[in-house]
UniProtKB/TrEMBL annotation:
Pfam families linked to this entry: Acyl-CoA_dh_1, Acyl-CoA_dh_M, Acyl-CoA_dh_N
Keyword line: FAD, Flavoprotein, Oxidoreductase, Transit peptide
InterPro entries in alphabetical order: Acyl-CoA_Oxase/DH_mid-dom (IPR006091), Acyl-CoA_Oxase/DH_mid-dom_sf (IPR046373), AcylCo_DH-like_C (IPR036250), AcylCo_DH/oxidase_C (IPR009075), AcylCoA_DH/ox_N (IPR013786), AcylCoA_DH/ox_N_sf (IPR037069), AcylCoA_DH/oxidase_NM_dom_sf (IPR009100), Glutaryl-CoA_DH_mitochondrial (IPR052033)
The species this protein was found in: Krasilnikovia cinnamomea
Family per similarity comment: Belongs to the acyl-CoA dehydrogenase family.
Domain Acyl-CoA oxidase/dehydrogenase middle residue range list: 132-222
Requisite cofactors: FAD
Identification of the protein by name: Glutaryl-CoA dehydrogenase
GO biological process: fatty acid beta-oxidation using acyl-CoA dehydrogenase; fatty-acyl-CoA biosynthetic process
Segments forming domain Acyl-CoA dehydrogenase/oxidase C-terminal: 234-381
Residue span, Acyl-CoA dehydrogenase/oxidase N-terminal domain: 16-128
A GO term, aspect molecular function: fatty-acyl-CoA binding
Amino acid sequence: MAVSAFDLLDLDSLLTDEERDVRALVRRVADDRVRPYVADWYERGEVPVRDLALEFGKLGLLGMHLKGYGCAGSSAVAYGLACLEMEAADSGVRSLISVQGSLAMYAIWRYGSEEQKQCWLPGMAAGELIGCFGLTEPDHGSDPAAMATRARRDGADWILTGGKMWITNAPVADVAVIWARAEEGVVGFAVPTDTPGFAAREVRHKMSLRASATGEITLDEVRLPEAARLPDARGLKAPLSCLTEARFGIVWGSLGAARDCLDTAIAYAGSREQFGRPIAGFQLTQAKFADMALELQKGYLLAMHLGRRHDAVGLRPEQVSAGKLNNVREAIAIARQCRTILGANGVSGEYPIMRHANNLESVLTYEGTSEIHQLVLGQQLTGLSAFAG
Protein backbone atom coordinates (compact mmCIF):
# COMPACT_ATOMS: atom_id res chain seq x y z
CA MET A 1 0.00 0.00 0.00
CA ALA A 2 1.42 3.38 -1.01
CA VAL A 3 1.95 6.09 1.64
CA SER A 4 2.69 9.79 1.30
CA ALA A 5 6.29 10.98 1.65
CA PHE A 6 5.77 12.49 5.10
CA ASP A 7 4.14 9.28 6.33
CA LEU A 8 7.36 7.30 5.86
CA LEU A 9 8.77 8.63 9.13
CA ASP A 10 5.42 9.39 10.83
CA LEU A 11 6.26 13.09 10.83
CA ASP A 12 2.70 13.97 11.83
CA SER A 13 3.57 12.74 15.31
CA LEU A 14 5.76 15.84 15.72
CA LEU A 15 2.74 18.16 15.55
CA THR A 16 0.26 19.23 18.18
CA ASP A 17 -3.48 18.99 17.58
CA GLU A 18 -3.63 22.78 17.18
CA GLU A 19 -0.89 22.69 14.55
CA ARG A 20 -2.70 19.98 12.63
CA ASP A 21 -5.85 22.10 12.73
CA VAL A 22 -3.98 25.10 11.30
CA ARG A 23 -2.51 22.92 8.57
CA ALA A 24 -5.91 21.48 7.69
CA LEU A 25 -7.48 24.96 7.55
CA VAL A 26 -4.84 26.40 5.24
CA ARG A 27 -4.84 23.30 3.05
CA ARG A 28 -8.61 23.61 2.66
CA VAL A 29 -8.33 27.30 1.75
CA ALA A 30 -5.59 26.54 -0.77
CA ASP A 31 -7.65 23.72 -2.27
CA ASP A 32 -10.83 25.79 -2.50
CA ARG A 33 -9.58 29.27 -3.29
CA VAL A 34 -6.21 28.89 -5.01
CA ARG A 35 -5.69 25.55 -6.76
CA PRO A 36 -8.69 25.73 -9.12
CA TYR A 37 -7.62 29.15 -10.42
CA VAL A 38 -3.87 29.51 -10.03
CA ALA A 39 -2.87 28.00 -13.38
CA ASP A 40 -4.99 30.63 -15.10
CA TRP A 41 -3.61 33.42 -12.88
CA TYR A 42 -0.11 32.25 -13.69
CA GLU A 43 -0.75 32.12 -17.42
CA ARG A 44 -2.36 35.57 -17.47
CA GLY A 45 0.18 37.07 -15.05
CA GLU A 46 -2.59 38.41 -12.87
CA VAL A 47 -3.82 37.59 -9.38
CA PRO A 48 -6.74 39.01 -7.33
CA VAL A 49 -4.53 40.20 -4.47
CA ARG A 50 -7.16 42.19 -2.63
CA ASP A 51 -9.78 39.45 -2.77
CA LEU A 52 -7.29 36.89 -1.50
CA ALA A 53 -6.02 39.22 1.22
CA LEU A 54 -9.52 39.72 2.58
CA GLU A 55 -10.12 35.97 2.67
CA PHE A 56 -6.75 35.28 4.28
CA GLY A 57 -7.39 38.09 6.79
CA LYS A 58 -10.73 36.61 7.86
CA LEU A 59 -8.92 33.37 8.65
CA GLY A 60 -6.15 35.09 10.63
CA LEU A 61 -3.35 34.17 8.22
CA LEU A 62 -1.87 37.68 7.79
CA GLY A 63 0.74 38.45 10.42
CA MET A 64 -0.47 35.30 12.15
CA HIS A 65 2.74 34.89 14.16
CA LEU A 66 2.57 38.45 15.57
CA LYS A 67 0.80 39.36 18.79
CA GLY A 68 -1.80 42.07 19.29
CA TYR A 69 -3.34 44.56 16.86
CA GLY A 70 -5.72 41.97 15.43
CA CYS A 71 -3.00 39.39 14.77
CA ALA A 72 -3.52 35.75 15.71
CA GLY A 73 -0.36 35.29 17.80
CA SER A 74 0.24 31.78 16.45
CA SER A 75 3.39 29.76 17.03
CA ALA A 76 6.28 29.83 14.58
CA VAL A 77 5.60 26.19 13.69
CA ALA A 78 1.94 26.93 12.94
CA TYR A 79 3.00 29.82 10.72
CA GLY A 80 5.51 27.58 8.98
CA LEU A 81 2.87 24.96 8.29
CA ALA A 82 0.61 27.65 6.84
CA CYS A 83 3.42 28.71 4.49
CA LEU A 84 4.02 25.08 3.49
CA GLU A 85 0.39 24.44 2.63
CA MET A 86 -0.06 27.69 0.73
CA GLU A 87 3.12 27.23 -1.28
CA ALA A 88 1.99 23.71 -2.16
CA ALA A 89 -0.64 25.62 -4.15
CA ASP A 90 1.68 28.36 -5.42
CA SER A 91 4.81 30.21 -4.30
CA GLY A 92 3.49 33.54 -5.55
CA VAL A 93 0.33 33.32 -3.44
CA ARG A 94 2.40 32.31 -0.43
CA SER A 95 4.57 35.39 -1.02
CA LEU A 96 1.48 37.56 -0.55
CA ILE A 97 1.15 36.17 2.98
CA SER A 98 4.88 36.35 3.70
CA VAL A 99 5.46 39.90 2.47
CA GLN A 100 2.34 41.18 4.19
CA GLY A 101 3.06 39.52 7.53
CA SER A 102 6.78 38.85 7.85
CA LEU A 103 8.09 41.95 6.10
CA ALA A 104 5.67 44.89 6.03
CA MET A 105 3.68 44.09 9.18
CA TYR A 106 6.67 42.78 11.08
CA ALA A 107 8.68 45.94 10.35
CA ILE A 108 5.91 48.14 11.72
CA TRP A 109 5.20 45.77 14.62
CA ARG A 110 8.88 45.57 15.63
CA TYR A 111 10.14 49.05 14.86
CA GLY A 112 7.11 51.33 14.58
CA SER A 113 5.57 53.74 17.04
CA GLU A 114 2.38 52.87 18.87
CA GLU A 115 0.53 55.32 16.63
CA GLN A 116 1.89 53.59 13.51
CA LYS A 117 0.94 50.18 14.83
CA GLN A 118 -2.60 51.29 15.61
CA CYS A 119 -2.89 53.02 12.24
CA TRP A 120 -1.73 50.17 10.02
CA LEU A 121 -1.62 46.76 11.68
CA PRO A 122 -5.32 46.02 12.38
CA GLY A 123 -6.28 46.80 8.77
CA MET A 124 -3.34 44.80 7.45
CA ALA A 125 -4.20 41.82 9.66
CA ALA A 126 -7.75 41.92 8.31
CA GLY A 127 -6.52 42.12 4.72
CA GLU A 128 -8.23 45.48 4.25
CA LEU A 129 -4.86 47.20 3.78
CA ILE A 130 -1.99 45.80 1.72
CA GLY A 131 1.65 46.40 2.57
CA CYS A 132 4.95 46.05 0.73
CA PHE A 133 8.60 46.19 1.79
CA GLY A 134 11.02 48.34 -0.19
CA LEU A 135 14.65 47.39 0.36
CA THR A 136 15.96 45.91 -2.93
CA GLU A 137 17.06 48.43 -5.56
CA PRO A 138 17.72 48.11 -9.30
CA ASP A 139 21.49 48.18 -8.72
CA HIS A 140 21.65 46.88 -5.16
CA GLY A 141 20.19 43.46 -4.42
CA SER A 142 22.58 41.33 -2.36
CA ASP A 143 24.37 44.46 -1.06
CA PRO A 144 21.67 46.55 0.65
CA ALA A 145 24.34 48.54 2.49
CA ALA A 146 25.06 50.26 -0.84
CA MET A 147 21.46 51.44 -1.27
CA ALA A 148 21.10 54.65 -3.27
CA THR A 149 17.72 55.75 -1.90
CA ARG A 150 18.24 58.81 0.27
CA ALA A 151 16.29 60.45 3.08
CA ARG A 152 17.15 64.02 4.01
CA ARG A 153 15.66 66.32 6.60
CA ASP A 154 13.80 69.42 5.48
CA GLY A 155 12.68 71.30 8.54
CA ALA A 156 10.35 69.02 10.48
CA ASP A 157 9.84 66.76 7.46
CA TRP A 158 11.77 64.14 5.53
CA ILE A 159 12.31 64.02 1.77
CA LEU A 160 12.77 60.60 0.14
CA THR A 161 14.41 60.19 -3.25
CA GLY A 162 15.32 56.99 -5.08
CA GLY A 163 13.80 53.75 -6.28
CA LYS A 164 13.13 50.15 -5.32
CA MET A 165 12.80 47.11 -7.57
CA TRP A 166 11.21 43.63 -7.44
CA ILE A 167 8.85 44.66 -4.66
CA THR A 168 6.04 42.15 -4.05
CA ASN A 169 2.60 43.72 -3.54
CA ALA A 170 3.88 47.18 -4.57
CA PRO A 171 1.33 47.73 -7.39
CA VAL A 172 -1.60 47.28 -5.01
CA ALA A 173 -0.12 48.38 -1.67
CA ASP A 174 -1.67 50.96 0.64
CA VAL A 175 1.51 51.35 2.69
CA ALA A 176 5.13 50.79 1.75
CA VAL A 177 7.87 50.21 4.28
CA ILE A 178 10.77 52.06 2.65
CA TRP A 179 14.40 51.88 3.71
CA ALA A 180 16.73 54.75 2.89
CA ARG A 181 20.13 56.10 3.81
CA ALA A 182 20.25 59.29 5.88
CA GLU A 183 23.06 61.17 7.61
CA GLU A 184 22.56 59.05 10.72
CA GLY A 185 22.53 55.76 8.78
CA VAL A 186 19.78 53.52 7.43
CA VAL A 187 16.27 54.61 8.43
CA GLY A 188 12.83 53.18 7.71
CA PHE A 189 9.49 54.81 6.92
CA ALA A 190 5.86 53.71 6.72
CA VAL A 191 4.87 55.51 3.53
CA PRO A 192 1.22 55.83 2.47
CA THR A 193 1.28 55.01 -1.22
CA ASP A 194 -1.00 57.94 -2.08
CA THR A 195 1.70 60.37 -0.94
CA PRO A 196 2.67 62.77 -3.77
CA GLY A 197 5.86 61.65 -5.49
CA PHE A 198 5.32 57.95 -4.73
CA ALA A 199 4.69 55.75 -7.77
CA ALA A 200 4.59 51.98 -8.29
CA ARG A 201 4.77 50.41 -11.73
CA GLU A 202 3.94 46.74 -12.18
CA VAL A 203 6.76 44.58 -13.51
CA ARG A 204 5.57 42.64 -16.54
CA HIS A 205 6.97 39.77 -18.62
CA LYS A 206 8.00 37.70 -15.59
CA MET A 207 8.64 34.01 -16.22
CA SER A 208 8.39 33.22 -12.50
CA LEU A 209 6.00 34.13 -9.65
CA ARG A 210 3.44 35.19 -12.23
CA ALA A 211 0.60 34.73 -9.72
CA SER A 212 2.04 37.57 -7.68
CA ALA A 213 1.95 41.36 -8.02
CA THR A 214 5.50 42.69 -8.39
CA GLY A 215 6.43 46.32 -8.80
CA GLU A 216 9.09 48.97 -9.23
CA ILE A 217 8.79 51.89 -6.82
CA THR A 218 9.87 55.42 -7.69
CA LEU A 219 10.35 58.01 -4.94
CA ASP A 220 10.43 61.51 -6.42
CA GLU A 221 10.93 64.02 -3.61
CA VAL A 222 8.40 62.27 -1.39
CA ARG A 223 7.71 64.52 1.59
CA LEU A 224 6.88 62.79 4.86
CA PRO A 225 6.35 63.97 8.42
CA GLU A 226 8.58 62.75 11.22
CA ALA A 227 5.61 60.61 12.33
CA ALA A 228 6.15 58.40 9.25
CA ARG A 229 9.65 57.32 10.35
CA LEU A 230 9.93 53.98 12.17
CA PRO A 231 11.44 55.30 15.42
CA ASP A 232 13.08 52.08 16.64
CA ALA A 233 14.72 51.19 13.31
CA ARG A 234 18.36 52.18 13.60
CA GLY A 235 20.87 50.97 11.05
CA LEU A 236 20.95 48.16 8.52
CA LYS A 237 20.26 45.53 11.17
CA ALA A 238 16.61 46.58 11.21
CA PRO A 239 15.72 45.65 7.62
CA LEU A 240 18.00 42.60 7.78
CA SER A 241 16.07 41.33 10.81
CA CYS A 242 12.88 41.59 8.75
CA LEU A 243 14.51 39.49 6.03
CA THR A 244 15.41 36.87 8.63
CA GLU A 245 11.76 36.78 9.69
CA ALA A 246 10.63 36.28 6.09
CA ARG A 247 13.28 33.64 5.36
CA PHE A 248 11.86 31.46 8.12
CA GLY A 249 8.59 31.20 6.20
CA ILE A 250 10.50 30.27 3.05
CA VAL A 251 12.23 27.41 4.90
CA TRP A 252 8.78 25.87 5.27
CA GLY A 253 7.09 27.15 2.14
CA SER A 254 9.60 25.67 -0.27
CA LEU A 255 8.79 22.22 1.14
CA GLY A 256 5.18 22.71 0.06
CA ALA A 257 6.15 23.26 -3.56
CA ALA A 258 8.43 20.21 -3.42
CA ARG A 259 5.73 18.04 -1.84
CA ASP A 260 3.19 19.02 -4.47
CA CYS A 261 5.65 18.14 -7.23
CA LEU A 262 6.40 14.77 -5.67
CA ASP A 263 2.72 13.95 -5.06
CA THR A 264 1.95 14.87 -8.66
CA ALA A 265 4.80 12.77 -10.05
CA ILE A 266 3.91 9.71 -7.97
CA ALA A 267 0.26 9.88 -9.03
CA TYR A 268 1.24 10.35 -12.66
CA ALA A 269 3.76 7.48 -12.60
CA GLY A 270 1.13 5.17 -11.18
CA SER A 271 -1.20 5.74 -14.13
CA ARG A 272 1.28 6.27 -16.96
CA GLU A 273 2.10 3.00 -18.71
CA GLN A 274 5.16 2.30 -20.84
CA PHE A 275 6.40 -1.10 -21.97
CA GLY A 276 3.24 -2.68 -20.64
CA ARG A 277 3.24 -1.48 -17.04
CA PRO A 278 3.09 1.71 -14.93
CA ILE A 279 6.36 3.63 -14.90
CA ALA A 280 6.06 3.76 -11.09
CA GLY A 281 7.04 0.09 -11.15
CA PHE A 282 10.42 0.69 -12.79
CA GLN A 283 13.52 0.63 -10.62
CA LEU A 284 14.95 3.91 -11.90
CA THR A 285 11.68 5.73 -11.22
CA GLN A 286 11.43 4.30 -7.71
CA ALA A 287 15.04 5.29 -7.01
CA LYS A 288 14.16 8.87 -7.94
CA PHE A 289 11.12 8.81 -5.66
CA ALA A 290 13.11 7.39 -2.75
CA ASP A 291 15.83 10.03 -3.02
CA MET A 292 13.33 12.88 -3.33
CA ALA A 293 11.25 11.64 -0.41
CA LEU A 294 14.34 11.44 1.79
CA GLU A 295 15.38 15.01 0.97
CA LEU A 296 11.85 16.24 1.54
CA GLN A 297 11.69 14.62 4.96
CA LYS A 298 15.13 15.86 5.96
CA GLY A 299 14.07 19.37 4.98
CA TYR A 300 10.91 19.01 7.06
CA LEU A 301 12.89 17.87 10.09
CA LEU A 302 15.21 20.86 9.67
CA ALA A 303 12.25 23.22 9.42
CA MET A 304 10.64 21.64 12.47
CA HIS A 305 13.83 21.98 14.51
CA LEU A 306 14.13 25.65 13.57
CA GLY A 307 10.45 26.21 14.31
CA ARG A 308 10.64 24.68 17.77
CA ARG A 309 13.76 26.72 18.56
CA HIS A 310 12.07 29.86 17.25
CA ASP A 311 9.18 29.31 19.64
CA ALA A 312 11.41 28.37 22.58
CA VAL A 313 14.42 30.68 22.46
CA GLY A 314 14.48 32.43 19.07
CA LEU A 315 16.75 31.92 16.09
CA ARG A 316 20.07 33.37 15.04
CA PRO A 317 20.25 34.66 11.44
CA GLU A 318 22.74 32.00 10.36
CA GLN A 319 20.38 29.25 11.53
CA VAL A 320 17.66 30.60 9.25
CA SER A 321 20.24 30.88 6.46
CA ALA A 322 21.01 27.18 6.86
CA GLY A 323 17.32 26.32 6.52
CA LYS A 324 16.71 28.55 3.53
CA LEU A 325 19.85 27.39 1.71
CA ASN A 326 19.10 23.70 2.16
CA ASN A 327 15.37 23.57 1.71
CA VAL A 328 15.06 25.78 -1.35
CA ARG A 329 18.03 24.12 -3.02
CA GLU A 330 16.51 20.68 -2.45
CA ALA A 331 13.01 21.83 -3.41
CA ILE A 332 14.11 23.06 -6.82
CA ALA A 333 16.08 19.85 -7.38
CA ILE A 334 12.95 17.84 -6.57
CA ALA A 335 10.85 19.95 -8.94
CA ARG A 336 13.31 19.42 -11.78
CA GLN A 337 13.52 15.68 -11.15
CA CYS A 338 9.75 15.34 -11.00
CA ARG A 339 9.53 17.14 -14.33
CA THR A 340 11.62 14.39 -15.91
CA ILE A 341 9.19 11.72 -14.67
CA LEU A 342 6.31 13.42 -16.46
CA GLY A 343 8.34 13.72 -19.64
CA ALA A 344 6.81 16.18 -22.10
CA ASN A 345 3.72 16.48 -19.91
CA GLY A 346 5.97 18.00 -17.28
CA VAL A 347 6.04 21.29 -19.15
CA SER A 348 2.27 21.45 -19.55
CA GLY A 349 0.22 23.90 -17.49
CA GLU A 350 -2.19 21.03 -16.90
CA TYR A 351 0.24 19.90 -14.21
CA PRO A 352 1.77 22.17 -11.52
CA ILE A 353 5.38 20.96 -11.71
CA MET A 354 6.85 23.40 -14.23
CA ARG A 355 5.02 26.27 -12.53
CA HIS A 356 6.56 25.24 -9.20
CA ALA A 357 9.99 24.87 -10.78
CA ASN A 358 9.78 28.32 -12.36
CA ASN A 359 8.58 29.86 -9.11
CA LEU A 360 11.36 28.21 -7.12
CA GLU A 361 13.91 29.89 -9.38
CA SER A 362 12.78 33.15 -7.77
CA VAL A 363 12.54 31.65 -4.29
CA LEU A 364 16.14 30.46 -4.70
CA THR A 365 17.18 34.07 -5.27
CA TYR A 366 15.00 36.31 -3.13
CA GLU A 367 15.50 36.96 0.59
CA GLY A 368 19.16 36.18 -0.02
CA THR A 369 20.71 34.15 -2.83
CA SER A 370 22.22 30.75 -2.15
CA GLU A 371 25.67 32.32 -2.41
CA ILE A 372 24.84 34.89 0.27
CA HIS A 373 23.64 32.18 2.65
CA GLN A 374 26.77 30.14 1.95
CA LEU A 375 28.87 33.15 2.93
CA VAL A 376 26.79 33.70 6.07
CA LEU A 377 27.49 30.11 7.10
CA GLY A 378 31.11 30.34 6.01
CA GLN A 379 31.66 33.36 8.20
CA GLN A 380 30.22 31.51 11.19
CA LEU A 381 32.43 28.49 10.53
CA THR A 382 35.67 30.40 9.96
CA GLY A 383 35.20 33.64 11.84
CA LEU A 384 36.16 35.53 8.66
CA SER A 385 33.87 37.65 6.50
CA ALA A 386 34.04 37.09 2.75
CA PHE A 387 31.49 39.77 1.89
CA ALA A 388 34.04 42.52 1.25
CA GLY A 389 37.31 41.94 -0.51
